[in-house]
Amino acid sequence: MTKPKVLISDALSPAAVQIFKDRGIDVDFQPALGKDKDKLAEIIGNYDGLAIRSATKATAKILANAKNLKVIGRAGIGVDNVEIPAATARGIIVMNTPFGNSITTAEHAITLMLALARQIPQADASTQAGKWEKNRFMGIEITGKTLGVIGCGNIGAIVADRALGLKMKVVAFDPFLSPERAKDIGVEKVDLDELLKRADFITLHTPLTDKTRNILDATAINKTKKGVRIINCARGGLVDEAALRAALDSGHVAGAAFDVFVEEPAKENVLFGHPNVICTPHLGASTTEAQENVALQVAEQMSDYLLTGAISNAINFPSITAEEAPKLKPFIELAEKLGSFAGQLTESNIAKVQITYEGAVAEMKVKALTAAALSGLLRPMLGDVNVVSAPVVAKERGMIVDEVLRAAESDYESVITVTVTTDDMKRSVSGTVYADGAPRLVNIKGIRVDAEFGKSMIYITNEDKPGFIGKFASLLGDAKVNIATFHLGRNQQGGDAIALVEVDGPVPQEILTKVAALPQVKQAKALAF
Ligand SMILES: NC(=O)C1=CN([C@@H]2O[C@H](COP(=O)(O)OP(=O)(O)OC[C@H]3O[C@@H](n4cnc5c(N)ncnc54)[C@H](O)[C@@H]3O)[C@@H](O)[C@H]2O)C=CC1
Ligand SMILES: O=C(O)C(=O)COP(=O)(O)O
């Protein structure tokens, strides 16, 4: 295996460089490159992995050049700077480090809240300017005040915990927060209007999505208590900046502390210059500890994937541990080949695909196996589909995908069956993995076989009548097509039969036409694996 190559295009801790090197991966550390999108687009094709923070924008345009890219690792939490659908469509795994900087970011939110309450930056500037304005900076006490947390996930919950320690009351709006969890972390779960009405401070901790964009717009800000203070350490765009500025100007909002902005880097912003606004340049995650955490973690995760196939914290693929990866690998190959077998035989719209996992394989990560089966199935029809993109493509096409898990019902320890239902037929194909790790076909349309997946094969369905084999073999012999292996099966004497023949080299179309014209033959197809 050639050494994988990783590009670090953001200011990650150098700890990441060392991990990649120690794991035997070539690494280019270009911390400022993320800001130069043309240069990034020019060189991205050389790399198997890309490690980033928030300055690199992994857009569809850049990813179009990422011919070898297998993984994007975000040393941090938010992945809104990565076009996930574009990465998924190219089969690129996108992973983040969901916990490495959460404490640090929560601490930044608390810091900003306290700085707002006591106007620390303004008082500092005034004092150092020699003004000694003791009467100008009257603060407010935190104790007993209500903090409204919008988005109570990892960071929101840590913020709530610290705020409770400061003797605040915490109300939280988060539609996905269970009442049990709310009770556990000591917050009162409320709806957004209630939060807006009651909070003395509001802090945001949701990702930026279509639902959360402008969650604090002019209407929401109007519903807040007069004198509210707002902190945003999550994402620019959660608060309508112009509406907030207007509410600050009118005095309805007493202060705002922002770490993140609609446009970053924020060189200009409508909030800048207001006396009650405190800004930091997206420093939420910027502590030595957090940066070391996320850099080490992302480098390990990316190395694991590039070297062993283990996947953790991927946004667009199920997790696979380092122990699971080698066991799963032959079954991924089997699932993909079974899907491919069915896909190559299918000529009309697939309405439904059922994947049945029987025996030991049912205990494995079947989501990954299903993704592999779907990629095999769709590739003959759609070309550029892979394990990462296939589930999305299947969904987009309205295909029903069913997974069935059950105990072993046959002589094999593990069997995967792919059943495809099209508008006019239903077809099943089953396979297993032998002890040597090789995938085998064990059943086609209910007929038992025992065949390997050859590179080039002819699949024939015929009536079980004498004379077929001789005629078929001489047709191939006359055309100088060498038969490598030959497998036959039938459902009953004189009933439906199949032949699966591996040949050396591709199968010429005219041979297939002649085979299809033999009296007993119903169908003859060339298959390639
Ligand atoms: N300023 C900075 O440097 C940093 C910012 N962040 C940002 O902080 C945010 C939160 O991170 P985590 O807590 O780790 O994420 P998380 O996924 O643990 O929590 C997000 C919470 O938001 C909730 N949520 C989703 N949609 C919502 C909606 N419409 N209304 C209310 N709540 C909603 C979810 O249910 C979840 O509980 C992310 O956007 C992340 O990018 C994270 C790290 C550093
Ligand atoms: O982890 C996150 O979501 C962050 O926003 C941190 O961003 P950064 O890595 O400091 O550019």
From TrEMBL:
<feature type="domain" description="D-isomer specific 2-hydroxyacid dehydrogenase NAD-binding">
    <location>
        <begin position="110"/>
        <end position="284"/>
    </location>
</feature>
<dbReference type="InterPro" id="IPR002912">
    <property type="entry name" value="ACT_dom"/>
</dbReference>
<dbReference type="InterPro" id="IPR006236">
    <property type="entry name" value="PGDH"/>
</dbReference>
<feature type="domain" description="ACT">
    <location>
        <begin position="457"/>
        <end position="519"/>
    </location>
</feature>
<comment type="function">
    <text>Catalyzes the reversible oxidation of 3-phospho-D-glycerate to 3-phosphonooxypyruvate, the first step of the phosphorylated L-serine biosynthesis pathway. Also catalyzes the reversible oxidation of 2-hydroxyglutarate to 2-oxoglutarate.</text>
</comment>
<dbReference type="Pfam" id="PF19304">
    <property type="entry name" value="PGDH_inter"/>
</dbReference>
<keyword id="KW-0028">Amino-acid biosynthesis</keyword>
<comment type="pathway">
    <text>Amino-acid biosynthesis; L-serine biosynthesis; L-serine from 3-phospho-D-glycerate: step 1/3.</text>
</comment>
<dbReference type="InterPro" id="IPR006140">
    <property type="entry name" value="D-isomer_DH_NAD-bd"/>
</dbReference>
<dbReference type="GO" id="GO:0004617">
    <property type="term" value="F:phosphoglycerate dehydrogenase activity"/>
</dbReference>
<keyword id="KW-0560">Oxidoreductase</keyword>
<dbReference type="GO" id="GO:0006564">
    <property type="term" value="P:L-serine biosynthetic process"/>
</dbReference>
<dbReference type="InterPro" id="IPR036291">
    <property type="entry name" value="NAD(P)-bd_dom_sf"/>
</dbReference>
<dbReference type="InterPro" id="IPR045626">
    <property type="entry name" value="PGDH_ASB_dom"/>
</dbReference>
<comment type="similarity">
    <text>Belongs to the D-isomer specific 2-hydroxyacid dehydrogenase family.</text>
</comment>
<dbReference type="InterPro" id="IPR029753">
    <property type="entry name" value="D-isomer_DH_CS"/>
</dbReference>
<feature type="domain" description="D-isomer specific 2-hydroxyacid dehydrogenase catalytic">
    <location>
        <begin position="6"/>
        <end position="316"/>
    </location>
</feature>
<dbReference type="GO" id="GO:0051287">
    <property type="term" value="F:NAD binding"/>
</dbReference>
<dbReference type="InterPro" id="IPR029009">
    <property type="entry name" value="ASB_dom_sf"/>
</dbReference>
<dbReference type="Pfam" id="PF02826">
    <property type="entry name" value="2-Hacid_dh_C"/>
</dbReference>
<keyword id="KW-0718">Serine biosynthesis</keyword>
<dbReference type="Pfam" id="PF00389">
    <property type="entry name" value="2-Hacid_dh"/>
</dbReference>
<keyword id="KW-0520">NAD</keyword>
<dbReference type="InterPro" id="IPR029752">
    <property type="entry name" value="D-isomer_DH_CS1"/>
</dbReference>
<protein>
    <recommendedName>
        <fullName>D-3-phosphoglycerate dehydrogenase</fullName>
        <ecNumber>1.1.1.95</ecNumber>
    </recommendedName>
</protein>
<dbReference type="InterPro" id="IPR045865">
    <property type="entry name" value="ACT-like_dom_sf"/>
</dbReference>
<feature type="domain" description="D-3-phosphoglycerate dehydrogenase ASB">
    <location>
        <begin position="327"/>
        <end position="445"/>
    </location>
</feature>
<dbReference type="Pfam" id="PF01842">
    <property type="entry name" value="ACT"/>
</dbReference>
<dbReference type="InterPro" id="IPR006139">
    <property type="entry name" value="D-isomer_2_OHA_DH_cat_dom"/>
</dbReference>
